Recover the amino acids of this structure.
């Protein structure tokens, strides 16, 4: 038993983090809310060039021949930066599902994000090609997540392959939730150290400390379930991970907003970018209720 | 990343399972927090010791098997899976012993550990005092130097001492430098409770058992050989013990996995239309989460990275999970939950026991302060 990442995996994660630190700042995410695509212009190509997007494809098919264990840490970082790109849908779902690295994919049960800029769209109904689908825009609470309903005549897909691919997307979304929880915790810890009321930093008050401790605990116990699910490819483990990671992200979002007070309630402040992504992801790739049902079907 | 146990570890698991299945007492022993039950539990401890299962992680010379942390976790999972008795020796084996391994002299190890492992000497913890609970550094019980006797003389009172009425020995902190304040000038003593001047009074706990005690010290002599670590350095020694108490050595995941499985069994019997599906499943997932967070932590420990303040997160998590598992069971049992007879009574007794978890080993409020200050870096004041 060695439940830890190796140095190469951590180094790859750090490299992606370095890129996003420069090219996926809150200003970039904010700009994506109001631009044409909801994405960060130019960033996808850089992620493709780094090998992130196609990493699960074999080398013959243009990938890196890596695994979900390699990818999960990177997806966690993309959550931390609220990367507004179909990275989970393409890297974790589409690339291994289609066995090719040169394609942009989006997928979800019902509402598919960034579908207008994707080559292939997969929903519970089946597979749609970009040039043979009617897309109906549906606004998401997260303005950078451009959501669509796909209408038209889908082609059938292999159910087993779809289930396996979808299970990876579930783990990917769970990893992003952990990253988002981390970001909101960091923002809030920094803010409550600086913000002074009654002559002292508000982070010195126990009521504030306990909110943030609860959030930190939720994250502490979500992450291992996400990493375990990445390693086992077991769909029940994926459901446990998503249920717990959603809980961590939503608990943290609530605590973060409350500890910020009114400034957190403004859209001028960055917190809402991460909080709304967490809300959105908690309803996509199967919500907590769906995943608790799946776990229940196995254990009860 | 490798999530499998080795063939040797799997063989060890099989050995534990076979022995426990053949030897765990049926029906269950009476509560170990009563005089009669304590004696029955010591017999069980002796049986464990003879089979070299009492202290698997200790060196063989003290009665262990030199088991790795992984093997210790496996043993714990199997122990609770088999429904084996509570460990009345736990405060010695899991709290004091790691401290003795870290701070004890070779003479102390050789003298104390084998008898502890065999259940011949049983240890209780003397931390809290009437005016020092969460604020442990406020303790007032005194140790005065006895130069002629090469030792110390203890006076004062300890309280809420778990199983103090049945144990033979106590480990505790006493103020040895009257001029020092708070965390300074404390010494960690190992006390024979049969010493002249010790008075133990049992106190009935919430669950009706005499599981607590008040321990009074009236000029009790303790030789230098029973000081653990350096005199006046007791706080650092004690912190090693509390780290064990909050962390995984006292409450390994196996205990909660077993309780979660019992809850699942109960749900299968009573759960339909209860409306509790999601909460039961979520509690089960939390037991799994604790298991995998432990594997994560143990991997780092094996590679030399200690958890530190992170053990406070563990303590809050398992103690509140334990309460939740029992609350759900009581909800499933409906009017039967009240009963103290029949085969459902263990849930009410377990609930009462679980409620102590958020209080002992540092209340969860204190732990949340520690998490905020030492993990998240928020200001102390």
């Amino acid at each position: 038993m060695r439940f830890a990442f190796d140095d190469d995996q951590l180094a790859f994660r750090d490299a992606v983090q370095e890129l996003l630190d420069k090219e996926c700042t809150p200003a970039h995410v904010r700009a994506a809310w109001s631009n044409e695509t909801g994405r960060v212009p130019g960033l996808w190509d850089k992620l493709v060039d780094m090998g992130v997007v196609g990493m699960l494809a074999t080398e013959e098919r243009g990938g890196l021949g890596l695994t979900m264990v390699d990818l999960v840490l990177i997806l966690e970082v993309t959550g931390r930066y609220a990367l507004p790109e179909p990275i989970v849908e393409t890297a974790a779902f589409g690339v291994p599902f289609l066995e090719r690295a040169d394609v942009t994919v989006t997928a979800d049960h019902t509402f598919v994000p960034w579908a207008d800029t994707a080559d292939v769209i997969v929903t519970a109904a089946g597979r749609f090609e970009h040039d043979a689908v009617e897309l109906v825009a549906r606004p998401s609470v997260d303005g950078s997540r451009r959501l669509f309903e796909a209408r038209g005549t889908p082609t059938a897909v292999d159910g087993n392959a779809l289930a396996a691919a979808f299970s990876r997307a579930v783990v990917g979304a769970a990893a992003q939730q952990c990253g988002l929880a981390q970001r909101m915790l960091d923002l809030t810890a920094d803010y409550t150290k600086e913000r002074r009321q009654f002559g002292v930093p508000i982070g010195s008050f126990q009521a504030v400390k306990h909110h943030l401790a609860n959030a930190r605990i939720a994250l502490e116990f979500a992450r291992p379930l996400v990493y375990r699910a990445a390693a086992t490819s077991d769909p029940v483990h994926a459901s446990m991970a998503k249920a717990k990671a959603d809980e961590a992200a939503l608990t943290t979002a609530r605590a973060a907003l409350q500890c910020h007070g009114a400034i957190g309630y403004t859209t001028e402040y960055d917190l809402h970018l991460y909080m709304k992504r967490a809300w959105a992801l908690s309803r996509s790739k199967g919500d907590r209720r769906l995943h608790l049902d799946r776990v229940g079907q196995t254990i009860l | 990343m490798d999530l499998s146990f080795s063939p040797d570890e799997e063989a060890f698991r099989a050995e534990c399972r076979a022995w426990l299945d053949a030897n765990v007492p049926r029906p269950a022993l009476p509560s170990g927090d009563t005089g009669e039950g304590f004696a029955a539990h010591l017999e069980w401890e002796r049986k464990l010791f003879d089979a070299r299962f009492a202290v698997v992680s200790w060196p063989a010379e003290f009665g262990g098997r030199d088991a790795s942390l992984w093997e210790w976790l496996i043993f714990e999972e199997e122990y609770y899976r088999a429904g084996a008795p509570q460990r009345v020796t736990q405060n010695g084996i899991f709290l004091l012993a790691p401290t003795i391994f870290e701070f004890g002299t070779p003479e102390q190890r050789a003298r104390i550990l084998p008898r502890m492992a065999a259940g011949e000497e049983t240890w209780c913890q003397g931390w809290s005092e009437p005016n020092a609970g969460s604020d442990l550094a406020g303790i007032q019980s005194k140790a005065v130097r006895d130069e002629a006797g090469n030792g110390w003389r203890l006076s004062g009172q300890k309280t809420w001492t778990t199983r103090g009425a049945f144990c033979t020995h106590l480990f505790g902190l006493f103020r040895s430098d009257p001029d020092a304040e708070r965390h300074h000038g404390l010494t960690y003593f190992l006390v024979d409770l049969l010493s002249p001047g010790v008075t133990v009074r049992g106190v009935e706990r919430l669950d009706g058992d005499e599981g607590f005690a008040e321990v009074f010290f009236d000029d009790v002599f303790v030789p230098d050989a029973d000081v653990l670590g350096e005199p006046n350095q007791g706080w650092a020694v004690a912190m090693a013990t509390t780290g064990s108490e909050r962390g995984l050595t006292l409450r390994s995941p196996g205990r909660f996995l077993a309780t979660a499985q019992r809850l699942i069994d109960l749900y299968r019997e009573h759960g339909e239309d209860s409306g509790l599906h999601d909460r039961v499943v979520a509690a089960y997932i939390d037991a799994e989460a604790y298991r995998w967070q432990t594997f994560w932590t143990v991997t780092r420990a094996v590679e030399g990275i200690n958890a530190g303040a992170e053990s406070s997160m563990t303590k809050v998590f398992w103690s509140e999970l334990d309460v939740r598992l029992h609350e759900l069971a009581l909800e499933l049992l409906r009017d039967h939950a009240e009963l103290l007879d029949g085969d459902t009574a263990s849930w009410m007794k377990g609930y009462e026991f679980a409620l102590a978890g958020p209080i002992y080993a540092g209340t969860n409020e204190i732990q949340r302060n520690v998490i905020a200050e030492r993990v998240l870096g928020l200001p102390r004041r």
Remarks:
- Residues 159-194 of chain A form the longest helix (36 residues).
- Chain A is about 60% helix and 10% strand.
